[in-house]
Amino acid sequence: MKRLFAYPYILWMGIFIVVPLLLVVYYSVTATGPDGNTVFTFDHFRRFFAPITPGMDQPLRERIFVSVALRSIRLALQSTGICLLLGYPVAYIMTRKEYSEKSVLLFMLLVPMWMNFLLRTYAWLTILERNGLVNQLLTRLGLPMIDILYTDAAVLLGMVYNFLPFMILPIYTSLKKMDPRLIEAAQDLGAGGVSVFMRVVFPLSLPGVISGITMVFMPGAATFIISNLLGGQQYFLLGNLVEMQFLNVGDWHFGSAIAVIMMLLMVASMVILSLFDKGENQGRSTII
Amino acid sequence: MKKVLLLTIAVIAIATMAACGNRDQVTLRVFNWGEYNHPDIPRLFEEETGIAVFLDTFVTNQAMYSRIVDQGAEFDVLFPSDYMIERLILEGRLAPLNFDNIPNARYLHHYFFDLPYDPEGRYSMPYMWGMFGILYNTTMVQEPVYSWEILWNEQYARQIYMYAAARDTLGVALKLLGYSHNTRDITQLHAARDLLIAQRPLVRAYQGDLIRDSMIANGAALAPIFSGCAWYTMGENEDLNFVVPIEGTQFFVDAMVIPVTSRRQAEAEQFINFMMRPDIALMNAEWIGYSTTNTAALEMLPDDWRESQIYWPTDEILARGEMFRDLGDFRQEFYDAWMMVLVGAGG
Q1: For A71, which of B193, B197, B347 is closest by C-beta distance?
Q2: Ordered per-residue pLDDT tens for chain B, 347 residues
Q3: Do A55 and B205 lie within an 8 Å CB cutoff?
Q4: CA-closest candidate to residue B245, choices B134, B155, B129
Q5: Domains, chain B, ordered by start
Q6: What is the ipTM of this complex?
Q7: Pair type for strands B27-33 and B52-58
Q8: CB of B139 less than 8 A from some CB of A
Q9: d(CA A128, CA A147)
Q10: pTM of the predicted protein model
Q11: For chain A, which domains are there?
């Protein structure tokens, strides 16, 4: 009987995840041949990695699509790093016993998520605009204006803003599950504040940190809305490239090939992270 | 266990069918640009005819094409631009209009009788029109604006918006170089592409509709924009002005067409006729701010609209316009060039 309840989900997964995935893979390795029939080919993948001359004045042949991919990875890594640096202390503070307002903090973290992600990103346009809220405030205070809208700083800001809760929540959960007696035990054994954190708290929270990293890095590497709105299409990312192939150019084959490359990238990063996770499990058993 | 599953599926199926009940109600599916008709249009049409209107919107001609062709969405009335209509006609995707059902076609202005994309006017009913030009903020740009070249002036670095659409923006560079924006010469196209790549450091952003609001809020100095859009922004911010550059530009027409896949052609024609009725055409024109194609509506517009060179360009300015044509197989070259501009050398 238990299995019966899994059927709706299996059906759902089959229709909306497995089939589309297979279609994407199919499109990525086929092309329309000269006589109109479908032929098998790896040309779309070759095209992605091939060097292209960007302009006539530039004899240098650049691997343009690869550099777009590198730019996406760099921005995703940067936003993950910032989210971790900002998010870990917040999650840590929220679990402190003496912090009685922790429910207020959690609430404040969740409230913005009730609003649509697109609307929140649009709101940043108004805030960062040349005559937007930030600059009006700076002018009132007699400070020079800043103009970061449509730069990679704005894209990074948008990513951190949108993905920060996905870093805080898993870390918070794993810290909260932790047995406080472990900390007391460490203190009894003469560990100072820093070494309690470094040798007990942080290692025990690693599963949360790793799922936080996964949940920030992946949407970060795949985003196109944030770079569209806050980057003004100046900072073309992999997501933008896929969007363009499907919505403007109409080249579903190349678009699918880029999507497959993105998925492989995600799988690779998950494999790397799971290695960390395993190493940690062994480490934990020695601690306890 | 299987019985339970079957029962569930049966219940869901029956519920779905019941939801689609109400079959006597005819619904017309209309696909228009965003904010390109008065918001009351669906309600007014339904009140008069009993035909409900389902309105969906698109952002670019390519997006519309992709939606109806690649994704197979079914619509009864579309509002594409000239060159896209030409492509749809060539590909056999449009149904000829039955003008017996569109008596209000007599209000069509003579400018739109013989247009290259639909020479006999059999497939399309022109709706709005305009020209592409430069919108600029007179408090930020003191020198006279008359040429596309000002968009390459380093003095305005990071104060220039460019329109995020392949043909329109490559068209600007082609015109500045003295070529036709319908060129099929790869050397000319690549020269235009390189010009745009060189311009990248000066560009604040490649945007679509957001340019309008930002220009109203004094967000940038210069932006290529459609005349109708410019006319609207100038009503909101009096520091803005609009110029059709001397090198030439696009003269465009957005028209109403019916795809062959529509099963409600008579109702679709009824809708087109409704949109051409003088009072409705006036309502749309005043609300959108784009130039109307309807002679009766034009006469009813306020004097300052009709006398404005921006709303209704003089013959001299009109002569600077060239219509976009469908590029056939060369289309792909434009997309590739545009992708190079966006991916760009910089960044």
Answers
A1: B347
A2: 455 555 555 555 555 554 544 556 889 999 999 999 999 999 999 999 999 999 999 988 988 998 898 888 999 999 999 999 999 999 999 999 999 999 999 999 999 998 999 999 999 999 999 999 999 999 999 999 999 999 999 999 999 999 998 999 999 999 999 999 999 999 999 999 999 999 999 999 999 888 999 999 999 999 999 999 999 999 999 999 999 999 999 999 999 999 999 999 999 999 999 999 999 999 999 999 999 999 999 999 999 999 999 999 999 999 999 999 999 999 989 988 998 898 875 43
A3: no
A4: B134
A5: 24-128+253-312 (3.40.190.10), 130-251+322-343 (3.40.190.10)
A6: 0.82
A7: parallel
A8: no
A9: 7
A10: 0.86
A11: 63-287 (1.10.3720.10)
